[in-house]
Design a protein that fits this description.
The chain is an alpha/beta fold. The protein has helices at residues 15-26, 48-53, 58-61, 65-68, 120-123, 130-149, 153-159, 169-188, 217-224, 273-276, 323-342, 377-390, 395-414, 418-431, 435-447, and strands spanning 7-11, 32-37, 75-78, 81-85, 90-93, 98-100, 103-106, 110-112, 125-126, 161-165, 197-201, 231-234, 237-243, 246-251, 254-259, 262-265, 269-271, 291-292, 305-307, 312-313, 355-359, 365-369, 373-376. It has three domains: 7-38 and 79-112 and 270-342, FAD/NAD(P)-binding domain (3-Layer(bba) Sandwich); 121-267, FAD/NAD(P)-binding domain (3-Layer(bba) Sandwich); 355-455, no CATH class. It contains 15 helices and 23 strands. The strands form seven sheets. It has a five-stranded parallel sheet with strand order 3-2-1-7-19, covered by helices on one side. The protein has a five-stranded parallel sheet with strand order 9-16-10-11-12. The protein has a three-stranded antiparallel sheet with strand order 4-5-6, with no helix packed on it. Helix 6 runs antiparallel to helix 7 (153-159) and helix 14 (418-431) packs antiparallel against helix 15 (435-447).
């Protein structure tokens, strides 16, 4: 049904896939571009915690693909990919449609990994999509409502205990957010906020160990204790089973049980099954099944296929599986696709790691800028949201989301806080070249009565 000669198909609308498509559009790519994703909306995953907490709305965090791709010439197909035949250059969809390609971009990302833990898939609450955020919100509200109505202290304690499983960045950010949110929610129901209990279980002996955020480990540990209710951290705890009202784990060689109605699963990811099923030999995969790609992000056995993000790796590099890496890989893939179309030389991918940003509660965060200096608290919160808003997929969406953020965070929050405002201006100016940082600085300088021209 499609022309197989001059057609590029992008499978997966995450950071790699979407930004490849957008870059191709901006570069006036001479071939048809089709982006396929099973979801209606792009999920800006680093800001999903803000969507869950109500700090940001759906238009900012989970915009529709049709909105983001409007006017780009990119064809969006909402469908589920059933199989990919690399030899036939064919993508088959659940609808029965088939797309052939001259070039293919694999941006499928990873999926939630349960690692054969009994009951984890059935009773663990993943946090990966907009639907996951909505499901956790409803579940936790239901538990709080039941807790405020019950007279049984043991049942109430179980309903008010939340287990967050996994001490990586996702688990830390979730635990911090929950530890601020739930006491507020429960207090609004006239319950005792101090009865809320948040427990972070981690298999390793420390949070963020071996992660790109490891430099923020000490700060994160301190911040977790400073939430509305302190987060209990159970290190060296290997979760072995999850049920409807418990989490079993092994600690110091002993089997323990935590009574809880809520087990939020952030313990890790697994390679997408579509990637696992590709006709790529094991010698061109890593131990997790991810695809080896060249420095130009092409598959060695199928140079017409590009891959980036969580589903691929470049040998002898240590790029983390983060949004900023996938975003930059998308730009390289787009450049190389156009180079192929025009018969030009391809370029190797270069990734500039700009530091790390970690959400550590409502209006609280930690930022490690270029591994050089650390900012914490509300200034880091502004840097984190501002930096991510700068990366939003299109200029129109960027401007709309940034304007809403500036209004909410700056005009409302800092209008009467001269000292805090000056501190944020100083921090934003340090970040420098970021567009949002400049906007924040200018807006705050105007509010503080300074001459804007002196700070250009």
């Amino acid at each position: 049904m499609s022309n197989p000669v001059y057609q590029t198909v992008i499978v997966g609308g995450g950071f790699t896939g979407l930004f490849t498509a957008l870059h191709l559009s901006h570069q006036h790519y001479p071939r048809t571009v089709i982006l396929i994703d099973k979801q209606e909306r792009f999920c800006f995953k680093p800001l999903l915690y803000e969507y869950f907490s109500g700090e940001m709305n759906a238009t900012q965090v989970v915009p529709r693909f049709t909105e983001l791709l409007d006017g780009t010439g990119v064809i969006f197909v909402r469908d589920t990919v059933q199989s990919i035949d690399l030899h036939q250059r064919e993508v088959k969809l659940a609808s029965g449609n088939t797309y052939n390609y001259s070039n293919l971009v694999l941006g499928l990302g990873s999926v939630t990994g349960y690692f054969h833990v009994e009951g984890a898939k059935e009773y663990g609450l993943p946090f990966w999509t907009q639907q996951d955020a909505i499901a956790i919100d409803r579940h936790l509200h239901d538990c709080l409502q039941q807790a405020v109505q019950t007279q049984d202290p043991e049942q109430r304690r179980r309903l008010l205990t939340v287990a967050v499983i996994g001490g990586g960045p996702s688990g830390v950010e979730m635990a911090a957010t929950i530890a601020d949110l739930l006491p507020n929610w429960y207090g609004a129901m006239r319950g005792n906020p101090q009865e809320v209990r948040v427990v972070l279980l981690n298999h390793g002996d420390a949070i963020l160990k071996g992660d790109v955020n490891s430099l923020l480990q000490e700060t994160a540990e301190q911040k977790l204790q400073q939430r509305a209710v302190p987060v209990e951290m159970l290190m060296g705890s290997e979760v072995t089973a999850i049920g409807p009202d418990f989490v079993e784990y092994k600690h110091n060689g002993k089997q323990e049980k935590l009574l809880t109605s809520s087990a939020i699963w952030t313990a890790g990811t697994a390679t997408n099954p579509l990637i696992q099923n590709l006709a790529v030999p094991n010698e061109h995969r890593d131990k997790h099944g991810r695809l080896q790609v060249s420095t130009t992000l092409q598959l060695p056995d199928f140079p017409e296929v590009f891959a980036g993000g969580d589903c691929a790796f470049v040998p002898e590099t240590s790029w983390p599986a983060t949004a900023q890496v996938a975003y930059q890989q998308g730009a390289t893939i787009a450049h190389n696709l156009k180079a192929i179309a025009l018969g030009r030389e391809l370029i190797p991918a270069k990734v500039n790691l700009r530091g790390t940003l970690l959400k550590l509660g409502l209006d609280d965060a930690a930022a490690n800028i270029y591994d050089t200096f650390e900012v914490t608290g509300e200034p880091a919160h502004l840097i984190r949201q501002g930096t991510y808003l700068e990366l939003l997929p299109t200029p129109i969406h960027n401007f709309k989301a940034t304007s809403e953020w500036l209004k909410d965070e700056i005009f409302h929050h800092y209008l009467s806080s001269d000292g805090a405002g000056k501190k944020v201006v100083q921090t934003a100016e340090i970040v420098g070249g970021a567009v949002v940082g400049v906007l924040v600085a200018r807006k705050l300088l105007q509010m503080l009565g300074n001459d804007d021209d002196k700070h250009q």
